[in-house]
Amino acid sequence: MHQYEASIAWRRDGQVFIDNRYSRGHEWRFDGGAVVPASSSPHVVPLPMSVAANVDPEEALVAAVSSCHMLFFLSIAAKRGFVVDSYVDRAVGVMEKNSEGKIAMTRITLRPDIVFSGDRISTPQELDAIHHMSHEQCYIANSIKAEVVVEVPKR
Fold first, then answer.
1. How do residues 33-57 score in pLDDT, each as one tens digit?
2. Based on the domain organization, do 25 and 73 belong to the same domain?
3. Residues 49 and 110 in one domain
């Protein structure tokens, strides 16, 4: 068993609060020392109560799924003898009402663009197999209800 922790900190800083017009800006702190400015999404709580420049939980969920998939992909590719030079994903999450009528992240689409080099270049079938294994092993994707789809660009 592994345990993961994050510290979330918000302060009222003199705002009225009960008028519901307080800043949603806050910080995420992680054990390695990283501090991430966070906020509600401006799509959910309008500006200026949200901080558009900060990371919101919805973006973080999409990034976590994308990052987990990528890390497994890189590991599997390396074990199979493929040299990956770059991996860039422009992942997109869709938030809408789910089958229970609740607002939820219902779909996350990963769009990895991967550049290989070296003597061994993957076939489309090998690439699909690595993505499938990455998805199966990604514990973040295994932890959420949202559908996770991988769209590989055609070359």
1. 999 999 999 999 999 999 999 999 9
2. no
3. no
Q: Sign of the CA dihedral 71, 67, 108, 153? A: negative
Q: For 82-95, give one letter per residue: b (16+ CB within 10 A) or e.
A: bebeebebebebeb
Tell me whether residue 155 is in a domain.
Answer: no
Rg, C-alpha atoms of the chain: 19
Position 132 confidence tier, pLDDT thresholds 50, 70, 90: very high
- The two three-digit tokens of residue 109, written as one number: 């689409």
Q: Which of 108, 8, 116 is nearest to 63 (CA)?
A: 108
- Kindly report the three-state secondary structure assignment for every residue of 89-110: ECCEEEEEECCCCCEEEEEEEE
Assign residue 53 a region: left if phi > 0, alpha if psi is -120 to 50, beta otherwise? alpha
Calpha distance 108→149 (Å, rounded): 6
Question: Which domain covers residue 22, as residue numbers?
Answer: 1-55
CA pseudo-torsion sign 49, 144, 73, 89: negative
Residue 51 shares a structural domain with residue 65: no
| Residue at a domain's end among 55, 75, 97 | 55
Q: CA–CA separation, 85 vs 114, rounded Å?
A: 8
